[in-house]
Amino acid sequence: MTALKRRRHLIRRSLLVLAAAAIVSYVLLVLLLHPSNERDWSPDQQRLATAEFSGDSVRVRNVRNAYYRSTTDFDVHWEDRTYDLRKLESVWYIVEPFATWRGPAHTFLSFGFGNGEYVAISVEIRKERGESFSPLLGLLRQYELTYIVGDERDLIGLRANHRHDDVYFYPMRATQAAARALFVSMLERANALALQPEFYNTLTSTCTSNIVDHVSLIAPEPIPYSYKIMLPAYSDDLAYDLGLIDTDLPREQFRSAFRINDLALEHADNADFSEAIRSRLK
């Protein structure tokens, strides 16, 4: 065997050993690490939302309604709110890109009721006190998954006015029956996580992939796999292509038309915040 062949053989063997070690390490992570609802959680995620259904009514416990002075200085209020499912009439898709290159983003949904009431549901990592998000750690079973049910002034205002990220706010095409089924599905998932916690996964269980799972349950056809789900700042393009966004605007115009940062800032302290951020979209 020549020196070159020996070197190639050693390299291949080393790569195989590294691959085997990585697989064994991940298997050990799966076997040894278990999700838990009992940790020292960040104050804004200390409580889990749960829902109690009674006919056409649902009582949601631990709806978050935080008041922010900054991203690190805030007062958290947890509220119990009751929603009449017969009045649920609209669904909104929110995209928050948060990187200098288009790709990474947070996405969530909000639901509107005929009485002018709105509530948002955001699928997130459940942070421990002092913890921050890392895509790598998200692959290594380091974060639990949580469904934050919250006031729009909280979930949208935090991102637009304090993180200063772009926020795109899209009305979705959905029948009343579909909107209700989607809302109920997400609340039932929140209930399930309160009973049996799960890990977040950067590839397989993210904010956007979970939304896709819920939407696929009610869509005429399942949402097709796309890199735009893995890179959710492109997910509004996918929703546009599938006809899910309620707009007649051409592709080159629709995103800018639904950016609401100016409205969110202007009406940050407005009692009618939710109506105000929709004022240009009706």
Notes on the protein architecture:
There is one protein chain. The chain has 282 residues and is of the alpha+beta class. The chain has helices spanning 3-32, 152-162, 176-195, 207-218, 227-230, 235-241, 251-257, 261-266, 273-277, and strands spanning 50-54, 57-64, 67-68, 74-75, 78-84, 88-97, 105-113, 118-126, 144-150, 168-171. The strands form three sheets. Strands 9-8-7-6-10 form a five-stranded antiparallel beta sheet, with helices on both faces. The chain has a three-stranded antiparallel beta sheet with strand order 1-2-5. Strand 7 (105-113) and strand 8 form a beta hairpin. The longest helix is centred in the N-terminal third of the chain and has 30 residues, at 3-32. The N and C termini lie far apart (75 Å).
List keywords for this structure.
five-stranded antiparallel beta sheet; alpha+beta; 282 residues; 2 domains; single chain
- Summed over residues and divided by their number, the pLDDT gives a mean of 91
Strand content: 15-25%
Describe the largest sheet: 5 strands, antiparallel
The helix/strand order is HEEEEEEEEEHEHHHHHHH
Cross-sheet strand order for the largest sheet: 9-8-7-6-10
Q: What's the overall geometry?
A: globular
Low-pLDDT sequence parts: none
Backbone CA Rg: 21 Å
Number of helices: 9
The share of residues in helices is: 25-40%
Number of domains: 2
* Total count of strands: 10
- The CA-CA distance between the termini, in Å, is 75 Å
Structural class: alpha+beta
